[in-house]
Amino acid sequence: MTAKEIYSLFERQVEDYHKKDDIDAATKNPYGDGSYESLLWEKNWIDTVQWHLEDLIRPADIDPVEALGLKRRIDALNQQRTQLVEKIDDHYVEEFAGVKPQADATLNTETPGWAIDRLSILALKIYHFTIEADRAQAGDEHLERCRQKLAVLLSQRSDLTEAIDLLLNDIREGRKKMKTYRQMKMYNDPSLNPELYKK
Asked: Using CA atoms, how far apart are residues 44 and 29, in angstroms rounded to an integer?
């Protein structure tokens, strides 16, 4: 898939989520289990739910018990998000398993999976800034500020999709090495978080 095709999939998922706009509603993944497209859909759905949980936790007068519950959900989704990014990278490790890197091949600062993670978040930003840039109840200053930010985001989408395609092509041609590292998060692991294991 090209990066534009991946972005288009993310865009469809964001639109689908907002038909109900409910953090507790299950997603209807239209792709077959185990497919790469299904993985991308699930990844963007998690990002979308997490986006809205982050909104819900922001009010200063939120009940502390409710806030803690939301924080626990955000942490759990963040763990799932990381695992899905690693599965995206596993997809590319498998795809490029037969590629022999050139002698002068270099590493990239981020893997394809983490670049695609940025694209997923970008789809959410563009969706919400598009709404804000045309919100009827907002003042002119707000609308203009949001339109300026939206223009930057659209430029970023163009640059990021081009960069992802370039990275994947460089790996395919052996100019870049396909190498991944697990995130090794500690805070959710009762054997690694001192606040958990000392109890």
From this structure: 11
* Packing angle of the helix pair 36-56, 112-132 (nearest 10 deg): 50
Residue located via tokens 């596993």:
90
Q: What whole-number distance in Å separates Cα of residue 77 and Cα of residue 65?
A: 19
The predicted-structure confidence for 1-43, as pLDDT tens digits, reads as follows 999 999 999 999 999 999 999 999 999 999 999 999 999 999 9
Contact 187, 195 (CB under 8 A): no
Residue spans per domain, the chain: 3-186
Q: Taking phi first (over 0 means left), then psi (-120 to 50 degrees means alpha), and beta for anything else, what does residue 184 get?
A: left
- How many Å is the Cα radius of gyration of the chain? 19
Query: What residues have CB less than 8 Å from 172, skipping those under 6 apart?
Result: 96, 99
Helices (H) and strands (E) in the chain, counts: 6, 0
Q: In which residue are the tokens 């819900």 written?
A: 56
